[in-house]
Amino acid sequence: MSKKFRCGRLLLTRDGRIKKLDLGNGGGTRICDWPDDSMTLDGVHNRLLAVFSSIDKKHQTSLYDFQHQPLDIQQFKTFTDYMNKYGLNRNSTVVYLCTSEFINEIPKSKEIELESLSITQSKSSSDYSFINTSNDLMNNIRELMNQHPSDKILINLFENLCLIHGYVYSIILPLQQLSEQSNESEITLYLNNLNNIYEIFQSTKLLLHDNIVSFCQTKLFPITRSLFFQFHNNIKILRNRWSKYVEKKNQVNTSITLSDTETDSQEKSFKQKPRKQIRKQRGKNFILFRSILKWFHYLVRVLKNKRLPLFRLCVTHAIEKVKSLQIRINLSDEASICQAKKVIESIKNQLNRKYHELEIDSTGSEPDPAIHKTQSSTMRVIRATLTSLYRYQTKISPQNQEKTD
Asked: DSSP of 205-221, one letter per residue?
């Protein structure tokens, strides 16, 4: 026979506080159906979403227990197990739906607004103190790790912030101190270096964004999150400013070069040949890395609902690296191919290490079949990509040998 239980609603504020919502604010105590003892906590979550239907889907939601603490849904096979463990009475409020004030993703309109802001307010990046903010971030992450010494998320966050702290002194600060009167090659050098490391800012932002609910009881975490988002926005401003400058300079230089051609026919020939070569090169690059990117994206989708943020982050890093290779690799240059092979080998080792850690964590139970199957297929594609790179390299090596002779 169907039973009923009482539920309520909480709000996770931007400063990390938990606030109980009354009826007037879309909360209050509600009655939920409990069809049978096999109902899982995921089923409870879905029922609460239906009961509190006014919640904007853009906001993150999660279950909290009767003590207003995050409820670990992996700990209990069914809702009955949860009720029995704590000896809860169905006439009391036994579970809460907690809504975060943070939005799951930035709307496109907001991204456009930030991009335009980065162009019109580029002065703010020259006044902004990257060093002070980086020092504050390092102090915060050390304090968080003292509070949670063995947390893998914080360890990964600490590693990222340590790297970023070094980049502040070696890349970001020198680029910030340059002016339009500076040497153009120096500007391009530091900008390229920033572009090469930019994925670490994206991955750190993802770590902070995806785990805000997990650390909602730690007030320092949302403060650190907000501080880093401000830091990242100023990095975007700095990057966009110099990208626009370099792009404009390149257009001027190209125009001057083309104007120096002797005749219209020579100019047409000059333009068409490189364009054909570029299109052909891009086509080869696209085909070479198409399969590996396809399987990386599939692996991300499989991991999305498996509560494995570090594994998912590792794959996200891999996607960014391969996309960068797809754009930059020169399949007619042996050094470029060797560098690509090193990157792919590194990715393969990192993914194997993460999967091995997952196997160790799940000792005594079978690894998730979907993850196992996708990981195996991804490894096969990585090996095939390395083989293709080796073949391109062997085609070039004899040519280089002939030139040397």
From this structure: HHHHHHTTTTTTT-THH
Q: Following DSSP, what letter does each residue of 376-398 receive, concatenated? A: HHHHHHHHHHHHHHHHHHHHHHH
Positive or negative torsion for Cα 16, 17, 18, 19: negative
> How does strand 3-12 pair with strand 93-103?
parallel
90 close to 6: Cβ distance less than 8 angstroms = yes
Strands (E) in 258-405, as ranges, are none
Among 6, 4, 13, smallest CA distance to 217 is for 13
H or E stretch at 33: strand 30-34
Mean pLDDT confidence for 16-20: 76
Tokens of 272: 């068409």
CB 232 within 8 Å of CB 194: no
Tally of residues, the chain: 405
Count CB neighbours of 112 within 10 A.
10
Residue 91, CB half-sphere, CA atoms under 13 Å: how many? 0
Q: Two tokens at 17?
A: 């506080």
Q: Is 266's pLDDT higher than 90?
A: no
* β-pairing verdict for 59-64 and 18-20: unpaired
**Tokens of residue 329, six digits:** 């690799």
Is the confidence at residue 225, as pLDDT, over 80?
yes
Distance of CA 98 to the CA centre of its chain: 24
What pLDDT score was predicted for residue 303? 80
Residue 304 CB coordination number (10 Å) = 11
Whether the Cβ atoms of residue 225 and residue 212 lie closer than 8 Å to each other? yes
Asked if residue 371 has pLDDT above 80, the reply is yes
Section 185-195 average pLDDT: 86
User: What's the pTM?
Assistant: 0.43
Cβ pair 399, 309 in contact under 8 A: no
- To the nearest 10 degrees (0 to 180), the angle between helices 41-51 and 79-86 is 100
In sequence order, what are the residues at sequence separation of 6 or more whose Cβ sits closer than 8 angstroms to the Cβ of residue 232?
Answer: 201, 204, 205
Coil vs helix vs strand at 106: coil
The CA distances from residue 344 to 1, 92, 231, in Å, are 57, 56, 30
**Tens-place pLDDT, residues 272-303:** 545 666 667 777 888 889 899 889 988 888 88
The answer to whether 303 and 372 are in contact (CB under 8 A) is no
Give pLDDT, residue 27: 87
